[in-house]
Every structure is written in structure tokens, then in C-alpha cells.
Amino acid sequence: NAGVTQTPKFQVLKTGQSMTLQCAQDMNHNSMYWYRQDPGMGLRLIYYSASEGTTDKGEVPNGYNVSRLNKREFSLRLESAAPSQTSVYFCASTPGQNTDTQYFGPGTRLTVL
Amino acid sequence: QKEVEQDPGPLSVPEGAIVSLNCTYSNSAFQYFMWYRQYSRKGPELLMYTYSSGNKEDGRFTAQVDKSSKYISLFIRDSQPSDSATYLCAMRDAGNMLTFGGGTRLMVKP
Questions:
Q1: For B74-106, what is each residue's pLDDT tens digit?
Q2: What chain B residue is nearest to A92 in terms of C-alpha separation?
Q3: In terms of DSSP bridges, do strands B19-25 and B4-5 run parallel, antiparallel, or are they unpaired?
Q4: How close is the nearest chain A Cα to the Cα of B98, in Å?
Q5: Is the pLDDT of residue B54 over 90?
Q6: Alpha-carbon distance A53 to A60, whole Å?
Q7: Using CB atoms, which residue from A40, A48, A107 is nearest to B102?
Q8: Which of A52, A69, B73, B100 would staple A73 via disulfide (CB 3.0–4.6 Å)?
């Protein structure tokens, strides 16, 4: 039982490049989330998926797109990376009934040059 | 002004000390309050959850909520070096999105 896994762990991009961050959970959770964490800013919600087939914007969605591929997988895409997107990205999941106990992945450290 | 304010620290204490971590918030609609612990280069993990005002105790940890003052606290008794981490408060209203504080970095020195 791996919980929430994220790939890659580290990534360096040049401005304008695109990439997709992958997230998968094996806990049969309904809801999944993407956050970014910047120094002093805490975790800010980018997008979330309350259930398979649905996605909604969070606090900071601009510059990102998401896909809930199936119940297990929720990907985050940067179409044209900008230096302001340099951050640590965390994926999380919850059973759906209780959104407060969020299970986080180990994070992806992204640097955009 | 952020909805949730948290002193970033770092807070350095000797082993065995009582630690007090705090958050203030401005949104009176928040009614669910959590503390997450995040070790270096790891994802956060839920430590404590409270729904109402008052105290909740779990081992060495006590979470306190004062809705009238819009103030929440986490107390750690008999702090250990293994408690060294960043502590994030989080809260939400009746919706399903959490709002996190910026985190307080705690260092417990042996």
C-alpha cells in the first residue's frame, strides 16, 4: 500500500516548456487535490477533483490544467512554464466524505529557469 | 492580508520544553480546524483535528480553538527532537477547500 505517489520527484524546465506532473493513489479515495507550496505562503490549492469525472478550480488555477484520468490518477499540466511556477507541488487525496484528513504525496520540486 | 496568519519561526526550544504554536484567522465562517505536521522534504500529515471551540488532547499534543478571538493553538508537551518539523494550521468553512497557514518551523534541540 503505497498511499499517494508522485512523479517526478524533481524537474528543471526552461521558460515556455511544458510538462505533466503525475499523481496516483491506491486508497480508493474519491477526491484528489493539487497544491503548490511556496516559502511563507503555505499550501495553496490549484485544482481539485471531488470525484472521478469532475474537476474544479482552486485558489491559484491560472497557468495549469488537470485531468482526472480515472479514480486512481490525477495529473497536473503546465502548458507553458513560467519562473513564477517554480515551487513544490503536492498531490493529496481524501476518501471524499471527510476532506480534512488529506493524505499527501512526497511532492515534486519544480524549477523553471 | 492573508486569511490565516502563522508566525514562520523558526522556533527553537530545548528538549522537554512545552511548545506553543499559534494561528490567527479572519474568516468567521471557518468551523473546522486542523494541524498538519511536515517533516523536511516530505508531504504534510494530519496531526490534530477539531470541530468546535475548546481543547482536544491526543498524547503530548493539545489543540485549542477560540472562535471568539479567531485564534487556534497547538501545544506540545515534553517536546522531543523528533518533533522538529514545520507545523501548518489549516481550516475550512462548510465547503470542501482547506485554507492553510504559512507554517511554523520548530526545532527541538537535544
A1: 999 999 999 999 999 999 888 778 899 999 999
A2: B43
A3: antiparallel
A4: 7
A5: no
A6: 21
A7: A40
A8: A69
